[in-house]
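Worked example 4.2. Below are the chains of a multi-component assembly; read each line carefully before continuing.
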Amino acid sequence: MNEEPNLLRRQLLAMFLWVGPLGAAWRARSASTSDRSRYPEAIAKRLMGAFASSPGAKEVGAEYLQAVPDEASVGLLISLITANNHKIEDSFSAISQRGMEEFLYGRIGEDFATHEIIVLRGWLFSRTEARLCALAHLIR
Amino acid sequence: MIVDARTIPTDSVIETDLCIIGAGAAGITIASECIDQPFQIVLAESGGLEYEEQTQALYAAENVGLEYHPQWARLRYFGGSTNHWGGACRPLDPIDFEERDWVPNSGWPFGYEELRPYYARANETCRLGPFAYSFEALEGRKFPSYLPGLEFLAAKGFRFSSTVFATEYLKDLERADNVKALLYANAVDIDTDDQQSSITKIRIACLSRTAFDIAARVFILATGGIENARLLLVSSNRYGRGLGNQHDLVGRYFMDHACFNSGVLALRHNPALENLYSTVKPRYHEGVPFEYAMSLCDAIQRSHGLFNHGVWLIPWDSANTGEDGRNVFGFAPYFEEQGFVEFFRLTNYHEITPNPESRVSLSTKRDALGVNQIKLRWLVDAAEKENSRKIQRTIAKEMGRAGIGRFRSELDDKGGDVWPGSCSHHMGTTRMHRDPKKGVVDADCRVHGLSNLFVAGSSVFPTSGFANPTLTLVALAHRLSDHVKRLLT
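Applying the procedure described above to all two chains together yields the following structure tokens:
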């Protein structure tokens, strides 16, 4: 049973854990949100690799951006997903995989609890979940 | 003894101790309980032992509310609607008996514990095996402790009876020395004494034009959730508005369960959940088929102001034509990637609140016996529909929060008039309440203001819960039979 939520977590992490791959490079040049905003393309390129095996997420993401076109920006989506939690944003490289899992999974659960929900083709998605998918769509 | 009422001389009077009108589940239960008691019983049934068009036509009705088919939902012959029922049985939940501030006009005069011993007897009457409806009783382990994350749900068991009351009990009644079962005997009027405080006789008419009276010490109406009100309303010679209707309550608060499909649920595969699904292959508990409905737990119902409800998870393939749910509703690759690979249609039975404007009244049209037909107005208002939507959203939210699944609602796709459908569960028209201004019968099911007239059946339910009503109405019939035995012995 415990492995099942982890499946989602892993999927989401696959979208977000450019932390690991970026590793030292990220630490070197992106210790702040201003750094991050300077390098969205670099992040996007790394994300592309992570999302290559996720055509489903891209489909959901495209639908989301059609419904919410104002969010069609990698930087904006990252901010929204992290809820402008600068502590999280600024220390991606320092956060363990488990910590990132807990953060993302918690965000999605919290979305459902607080009705931060978007309806796409009738399905109810967490906003965070849909934004992660939108990110996947944007960085192809 | 079985007697064809058409052979009884016109204008004669049959004298007895207990007169039961209606040989459906409630009437048969009470009569059977009173076999060998030291008093005489007449059980009067409108029909014969088989279905007959002419008798069934006495159910013809005028419908002025939501789509409804009151003439076909019931059967008017010995055994009543148990001649075609689906057999689904479950007691009401304890919360159903409570006065809940978010459910207008809710609250029974007693709690679940009062009815609990009678439920056990009703279980036996319906040949349902052990009184086992909880997940723990059916599975030998607690729900949901073995399914972390599902604490927001309650699993509610249904047992299925194959008992046709006529087949099961006719022989016993026929052999009983103190029971006379009259066939083709239609109650058409109820008469009181001059003080209008007790019933003296009930007028019986046959389609053959024979008519006679039954005089008794105690009378019980057990003609069903609609006809009980009809009989009180047409018995208006002395009262103008009908018997027991001083406060204009008879026929009001008509309830049925709202039945509808609400959407599709995509779940992760989890063998531990399989016990909860409704499948085409029934499961058995000590020889009796059973299955589960799911409800949001009482705590969530209380905190969110939700009506009680049952939701059946019907595996997509068994609910449809084998079409793959993933392809029907889109995002198939995404759900596949996320592991949401099992698709279910959600079929709902929801409690509908007692509404005085939802009612049975008399039509100006008359049946073959000259009795007013009923005019039925079943209402489900916008607030009730919104409550049903809220239940779906809460399920979706909790499923998502727990990471168990994703939900696609169909309710917003449907036009306002398309849902809900009825379940043919007729309840509430002679509701029970201690206060005569708020109920037709008291806690003993006695009509307020009349010393010897009682009502049996789902018409006395103050609220409906979501469970099919038969087990509860049979439990109430057992309770009433005990009361009547005390009165007559």
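Take a moment to check your reading of the output against the notes. Chain B touches chain A at residues 147-149, 263, 268, 270, 272, 329-339, 393, 396-398, 400-404, 406-410, 412-413 (CB under 8 Å). The first helix of chain B runs from residue 25 to 33.
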